[in-house]
Specification:
- With 158 residues, this protein is α+β, with helices and mostly antiparallel strands.
- It has a domain of 91 residues: Ribosomal protein S6/Translation elongation factor EF1B (Alpha-Beta Plaits, 2-Layer Sandwich).
- The chain contains 4 helices and 4 strands.
- It has a 4-stranded antiparallel beta sheet, with helices on one face.
- The longest helix has 17 residues.
- The radius of gyration is 30 Å and the shape is globular.
Length: 158
């Protein structure tokens, strides 16, 4: 049996009808000798373009293990279903299951405990590390805008 990813879009339905449509697809997969490894419901999303004058759909991805001979039968049942707007079955080597996005790291706010004269040292700690040995040997200079230029002393009219 091979690994597949089945992604399909259902037309907007009531919650009970949506569950029934998902159950029909799951039953068809199991009757064909397949096994559902994981399920990823994307929820209701806006379509990139209207399909049969429908602008929204419920996206679902199933990670399945299925005999190769059963794929045509599953595609045929999806094609005949009025609730399925689009589908795609892709054979994959291994399942890459979706992971939850990493929680956004809140910026650490610390009370300024260091005196103002240590500020350049703190800035140097947060500076990006040199990516090559050549950059590491070159002295670091401040940007041109940050450098103050003293006016040149003139000897006019003295």
């Amino acid at each position: 049996m091979a690994n597949y990813e089945l992604t399909y879009i259902l037309r907007p339905l009531e919650e009970a009808n949506l569950t029934a449509a998902n159950d029909r697809i799951t039953t068809a997969l199991r009757n064909a000798g397949g096994e559902i490894v994981a399920r990823h419901d994307w929820g209701r999303r806006r379509l990139a373009y209207p399909i049969r004058k429908i602008n929204d759909g419920y996206y679902t991805t199933l990670y399945i293990t299925l005999p190769g001979t059963a794929v045509r039968g599953i595609e045929r049942s999806l094609q005949l279903s009025d609730d399925v707007l689009r589908y795609i079955v892709v054979r994959v080597e291994t399942h890459r299951l979706p992971t939850a996005p990493a929680p956004a790291a809140a910026p650490a706010i610390e009370a300024p405990s260091a005196p103002a004269e240590n500020v350049p040292e703190a800035a140097a700690e947060n500076a990006p590390a040199a990516s090559t040995a050549e950059e590491a040997t070159q002295p670091t200079t401040a940007p041109a805008e940050a450098q103050e230029v003293a006016p040149a002393a003139t000897t006019e009219g003295s």
